[in-house]
UniProtKB/TrEMBL annotation:
GO CC annotations, alphabetized: cytosol
Domain of life: Bacteria
Domain HTH crp-type, residue spans: 150-223
InterPro entries assigned to the protein according to its UniProt record, in alphabetical order: cNMP-bd_dom (IPR000595), cNMP-bd_dom_sf (IPR018490), Env_Response_Regulators (IPR050397), HTH_CRP (IPR012318), RmlC-like_jellyroll (IPR014710), WH-like_DNA-bd_sf (IPR036388), WH_DNA-bd_sf (IPR036390)
Ranges of residues in domain Cyclic nucleotide-binding: 15-136
Protein name per Swiss-Prot or TrEMBL: Crp/Fnr family transcriptional regulator
MF-aspect GO terms: DNA binding; DNA-binding transcription factor activity
PROSITE patterns: CNMP_BINDING_3 (PS50042), HTH_CRP_2 (PS51063)
Pfam families: cNMP_binding, HTH_Crp_2
Amino acid sequence: MSLDAKTNFLEQFPLFECLSQEERIELAGMMKTEKRTRYSMVYMPGDPSDEIYFLAKGTIKIGTHSSDGKEVIKSLIHPLAMFGELGIIGEKERQDYAQVLRDEVILYSLKNDDFRQMMRKNFDLCSQVMSSFGQRLMRAENKLESLIFKDARTRIIDFIKDSVSDRGRRVGFEMLLKHSLTHQDIANITCTSRQTVTLVLNDLKKSDLIYFNRGKILVRDMAKLA
């Protein structure tokens, strides 16, 4: 992809609002464009943590497997977000995996050393990156509290509400969320089972609180969803 296209991408990326145009052009020149097909792996546990990624198109899931082989999805990455950033603060090898969901993705990769160099030159960028690590920690703490204090139904409903609030669009008085998740994916995110997810979604649909089909969830009334 051209240097102009990379620079335009950085202009849209909230993390890089603090950079000057010259700094964006410099950073764009160090970035590599990558296209990944559906369900392909961006990285696996044990791979070197020597690059950071910025997502331009598609969805990535970050996950791991428990000792009994069960998948646990830690987070979903959507466009204009970074991932694989733990190498910046000392991770040598990947502990998690990053996998493409249903649709092809376009992402940009950058060597950690190049990104650190830019952080040293721009204090505001360094501050933004540290803030993103803080937000990551808060999300992890919130998820842990949810597992301890909330039942499976509440966790599934909270996931729907959070996803719709973050990425849904209003359609009349309703909210529409387009996604690339299976019921098993939602179960792996909420630490429930596929059967429980299906039961909860069908119950919400029967109560006319949501409508769903493959790739879409329509929330009738966010205030009543509980």
